[in-house]
Amino acid sequence: MAWWNEEVKGNPKAAVIVIMVLISMFAFIYVRDCMRTHRKPNELLNQTLIQHPERWNEVKGQTEDWYVRGVSIQGHVFQGVDFENTEFDGGAFENVIMKDCNLHGANFYKTQFKNVRIEGGDLSEMSVSHANWEDVVITEAGMGGFRTEYSEWNRVNLKRVNLTTSPYVSAFYDVVMKDVLIEESDLGPAIFTYIDAKGVTIIGTNLSRTGRRDSPSKKHEHRFIILNSECGPAFREDCEKKHANE
User: Fold this and answer.
1) Which of 66, 67, 163, 231 can bridge 239 by disulfide, Cβ–Cβ 3.0-4.6 Å?
2) Contact between residue 105 and residue 83 where contact means Cβ atoms under 8 Å apart
3) CA-CA distance, 148 to 29, in Å (whole number)?
4) Residue 131: helix, strand or coil by DSSP?
5) pTM summary value
């Protein structure tokens, strides 16, 4: 049964709270996008990321404006880089590896990821909006409070990630997920809202506290395959459906 029905149905106060949270979220997105339109990027950081990415930590420490716009990086390995609270607007990361990097609170808006591998590090409270992720692997990382909205995930693999490393709840909102694999992870109280699941396989993962609200749109698919996982109310039907076919 869907998370909305389990937690909110028959509880008017809970329904009002959920609606207020959604309205606040949309208002925040609108204001944020308007501000982003008129903001100028930090040219020093832009040029450093393009020409001397190995000096990023040093240069970032010299400024308090961590806003990067329209930068595309190809074929680079980032080791222990501090991207904490950096805002990326546009651009792309392609054929990139990030090892033990700090992405805590980083914000990626319309920033594309293609053939990206993230190993270890902290992705807690990282935000991804209006972005396309293609052939992305994230492994052994903390992702508590991770948020993504209005995005597409194609062939994305989350392996041994922990979504309980922040007091904030992780949220996946209006994301198209195609050929996504989540394995050996703990999704904690993350909430999946209006997910167009065109093939999501979940293996050996803790879903006991994970919430879910499916879209009423007939265009959205809900193809979840769940194996050897601890399921809560939100995904129990998918778990039972799979077990019945075994």
Assistant:
1) 231
2) no
3) 12
4) coil
5) 0.81
Contact at 8 Å (CB) between 112 and 135? no
Tokens of 207: 């879903």
DSSP at 144:
T
Contacts (Cβ under 8 Å, ≥6 apart) of 215: 174, 194, 195, 196
- At residue 100, does pLDDT exceed 90? yes
Partnered with residue 96 across adjacent β-strands are 116
**Where do the domains of the chain lie, and which CATH numbers do they carry?**
3-245 (2.160.20.80)
Q: Read out DSSP for 32-52? A: HHHHHHTPPP-HHHHHHHHH-
β-pair type (132-139, 147-159): parallel
Q: Which of 58-62, 121-125, 186-190 has the lowest mean pLDDT?
A: 58-62
Give the angle 222-212-145 at the CA atoms, nearest 5°: 120
Q: How many residues does the chain have?
A: 246
Element (H, E) at 155: strand 147-159
Percent of the chain at pLDDT above 90? 69
Mean pLDDT of the residues in the chain? 87
